[in-house]
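Ticket #4471: structure export looks truncated?
Reporter: QA, pipeline team
Priority: medium

Steps to reproduce: submit the single chain below to the structure queue and open the exported record.
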Amino acid sequence: MAATPLDLPAFAPGSVWLVGAGPGDPGLLTLLAAHALAEADAVVYDALVDPRILALAGPRARLTFAGKRGGKPSPRQPDISAKLVRLARQGKRVLRLKGGDPFVFGRGGEEALALVAAGVPFRVVPGVTAGIGGLAYAGIPATHRAVNAAVTLVTGHNTEGDVPDGLDWTALARGAPVLVLYMALKHLADIAARLLAGGRGSDEPVAVIAHATTPRQQVVETTLGTCVADVARAGIEPPAVIVVGGVVRLRAGLDWQGAAAGRTLEPDPLGLRTRATG
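Actual output as written to the record:
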């Protein structure tokens, strides 16, 4: 039987698609994202979008950089939103291409609200967020039924670039079995201290994944008590995602990239078989 072609939605002139490009690996693009790249007249893209993804844009597309990097000169968010509106009003098919997922710490909600206020039609195309895809590429599941029944996604800085004071760090330390921290590397010492003060153990497993899903991926396995020194020693630089919790121990058995490079995997890293039979 012949394959049925996908009935992908039309990318209408004068509209904006807010598209997640995933955490880095171009293979993690969705079909809708690839479709949007091929059809767009204008692509406004973030700093962490892989050049191989941009290369998928159609020949008529005009590419505009609008990336934000901590501590470096960056476009203002209101200016980015205004540009999206302006391009749409020119009758262009506007693709706002964002790393990860546009609605997970990507300020896509702000841009979407700006489009609504301007009366510009839009579509949201979800992407693989680094807090899920980055962990998977490091061999760490975000959930495992023997470890956690919840996972909490937390941003490591607010709009001013500081540790969010509006968060109840004690409640997070006590109530969230697994924490996935975005954009937290700069404030790792402060965040670790808050979690320790909130009751988290110094031996709590921690993994720091830099440049997740890309050829530059680097993973440091450590603990909450030693993570600051270990990360400094390893020379880890952003972008990075940090996971705190028992799921980190599963990497010993699930590091599929390490296995491909010859690393021996542990079939029972949590000792579940021993516990069941002991």
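Status: closed, not a bug. The export was complete when the record was re-opened. Leaving a note from the reviewer for reference: The chain has two domains: 16-128, 131-277.
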